């Protein structure tokens, strides 16, 4: 029953913080007595309740409820707490103490049911004993809620449902962009996968307060993680938009974003840090998007309109930004891009097929499939083919190189007779050979340009025969 009550109150997390300081509290000197707390020297609290680094007794006088609905005391913040109403003990969360050794940390959020008989006509004295020695960080507003609320209240689950829906969509986008990157090795798909992954993690961390009853010392880690993830998303957004629409400014834009977004760590309050990290990231991303519009880069105009719309909404409703709008931004941005990437993949595959069909009539050229598309490379311009895992590197005349989605074994059979496998990871174009030199107990083949290629012992006789080099000769002159 207590857990159901706890979750019901927590689902109202979007409205409770606004009422957290609605009660007029007094700070007192106090001690626990046999008949309830003993208080003296009370004075009004002018700003907010702050038990950080100390033991704190506070009290407030409340009127009796006007109806018979049950009430609960809801306490949320980085503190252990204990509560009394009219001297009647309501409950304890952890154990408040005068020192860190005496305190037992409680949960960040706690509810204390108030029995109907605890109320009395007229004024009712509510007393809270608080302490916070294990918070880890100093919070500008350590207590986010101190409120007496009726139970049950209507459950506001819509924001939580939207968060979960956006998180599920973003997780699907992570796998989608990850698959695209595995097939095409495109930098943009990797950045988008990172953006979706960061947003998914932030949705999970944001929901922890509603779904998990964690100890208050973990709150500093949770809030720090939220800011780090928001800042990471903002940096990735700037990197993606700049790479996509204004690539020549990529380095200075990312450097500027690191400085500007990183500076939000100096702002007071984690909600402010998070909101401004996202707002500044979107504002910086507008710059390369606008440059892309000026340069008439395809896709820049809708990207700019989307970023400008989100920026306007974020500035108009900043209190929604970290809790809800951020996930809508991430999902609304990456999901359409995922569909665009899938369509582009299909178009690229059709282009590859057409190029392969055309290549049949060009036996003097090698059809090279890479992340950039299909290219027909003259075989005479290939100096060597070097293995690179599931790909091969084609070293070409003029210092150029290409990654080709093929295996070395397959190319060895496909290339003409002037090419010879001289090492398990290298095929050389003997028409470009200059000399064969010994380097200690190893041999190397020098081509007309570029770095020399290693020659394995087992393939050295075949290479000598092909080059018509006597076994005793240590080098082949150019």
Write the layout of secondary structure elements.
Layout: H1 2-10, E1 26-33, E2 36-44, E3 55-63, E4 71-77, E5 80-85, E6 88-93, E7 109-114, E8 123-131, E9 143-150, H2 158-184, H3 187-211, H4 218-245, H5 250-262, H6 270-294, H7 300-316, H8 321-359, E10 365-370, E11 373-378, E12 382-388, E13 391-396, E14 401-404, H9 408-414, E15 419-423, E16 426-429, E17 433-439, E18 442-447, E19 453-455, H10 460-467
Antiparallel strand pairs: 1-2, 1-3, 3-8, 4-7, 4-9, 5-6, 5-8, 10-11, 12-13, 12-16, 13-14, 15-16, 17-18, 18-19
Helix pairs in contact: 2-3, 2-8, 3-4, 3-8, 4-5, 4-6, 5-6, 6-7
Tags for this entry?
single chain, alpha+beta, Jelly Rolls, OB fold (Dihydrolipoamide Acetyltransferase, E2P), 6-stranded antiparallel sheet, 26% strand, disordered N terminus, disordered C terminus
Short description:
With 478 residues, this protein is an alpha+beta fold. It has 10 helices and 19 strands. The protein has a 6-stranded antiparallel beta sheet, with no helix packed on it. Strands 14-13-12-16-15 form a 5-stranded antiparallel beta sheet.
Strand order of the largest sheet: 2-1-3-8-5-6
What do the pLDDT scores average to?
79
Low-confidence stretches: 1-21, 473-478
Helix count, DSSP H or I runs of 4 or more residues = 10
Shape: elongated
| Count of structural domains | 3
Which structural category do the helix and sheet elements fall into?
alpha+beta
Separation of the first and last Cα atoms: 90 Å
* Secondary structure: number of strands: 19
- Give a short account of the largest sheet: 6 strands, antiparallel
Strand content: 25-35%
User: What string, H for helix and E for strand, traces the elements in order?
Assistant: HEEEEEEEEEHHHHHHHEEEEEHEEEEEH
Radius of gyration, in Å, reads 34 Å
Share of residues in helices: 40-55%
Organism: Sphingomonas leidyi
Keywords: DNA-binding, Membrane, Signal, Transmembrane, Transmembrane helix
GO molecular function: DNA binding; phosphorelay response regulator activity
Protein name: DNA-binding LytR/AlgR family response regulator
């Amino acid at each position: 029953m207590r857990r159901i009550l706890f979750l019901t109150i927590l689902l109202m997390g979007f409205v409770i913080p606004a009422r957290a300081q609605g009660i007029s509290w007094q700070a007192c000197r106090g001690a626990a007595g046999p008949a309830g707390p003993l208080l003296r020297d009370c004075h009004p609290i002018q700003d907010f309740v702050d038990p950080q680094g100390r033991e704190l007794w506070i009290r407030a006088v409340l009127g009796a409820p006007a109806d018979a609905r049950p009430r609960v005391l809801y306490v949320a913040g980085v503190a252990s707490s204990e509560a009394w109403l009219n001297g009647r003990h309501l409950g304890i969360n952890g154990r408040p103490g005068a020192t860190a050794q005496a305190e037992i940390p409680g949960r960040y959020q706690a509810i204390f049911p108030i029995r109907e008989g605890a109320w009395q006509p007229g004024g009712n004295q509510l007393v809270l004993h608080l302490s916070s020695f294990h918070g880890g960080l100093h919070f500008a507003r350590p207590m986010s809620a101190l409120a007496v609320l009726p139970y049950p209240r209507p459950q506001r689950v819509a924001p939580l449902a939207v968060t979960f829906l956006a998180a599920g969509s973003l997780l699907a986008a992570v796998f989608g962009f990850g698959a695209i990157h595995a097939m095409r090795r495109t930098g943009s798909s990797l950045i988008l996968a990172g953006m979706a992954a960061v947003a998914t993690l932030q949705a999970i961390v944001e929901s922890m307060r509603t779904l998990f009853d964690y100890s208050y010392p973990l709150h500093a880690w949770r809030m720090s993680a939220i800011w780090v993830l928001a800042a990471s998303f903002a940096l990735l957004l700037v990197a993606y938009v700049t790479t996509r629409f204004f690539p020549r400014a990529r380095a200075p834009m990312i450097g500027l974003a690191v400085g500007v977004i990183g500076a939000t760590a100096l702002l007071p309050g984690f909600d402010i840090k998070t909101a401004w990290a996202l707002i500044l990231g979107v504002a910086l991303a507008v710059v390369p998007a606008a440059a892309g519009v000026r340069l008439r880069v395809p896709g820049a105009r809708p990207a700019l309109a989307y970023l400008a719309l989100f920026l306007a909404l974020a500035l108009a409703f900043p209190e929604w930004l970290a809790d809800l709008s951020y996930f809508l931004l991430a999902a609304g941005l990456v999901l359409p891009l995922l569909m665009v990437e899938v369509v582009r993949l299909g178009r690229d595959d059709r282009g590859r097929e057409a190029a392969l069909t055309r290549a049949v009539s060009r036996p003097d050229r090698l059809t090279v499939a890479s992340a950039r598309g299909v290219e027909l490379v003259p075989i005479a311009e290939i100096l060597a083919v070097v293995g690179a895992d599931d790909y091969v590197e084609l070293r070409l005349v003029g210092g150029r190189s290409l990654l080709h989605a093929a295996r070395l074994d397959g190319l060895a059979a496909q290339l003409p007779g002037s090419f010879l496998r001289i090492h398990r990871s290298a095929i050389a174009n003997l028409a470009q050979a200059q000399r064969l030199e010994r380097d200690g107990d190893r041999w190397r083949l020098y081509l007309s340009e570029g770095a020399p290629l290693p020659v394995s012992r087992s393939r050295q006789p075949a290479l000598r025969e092909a080059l018509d080099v006597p076994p005793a000769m240590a080098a082949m002159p150019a």
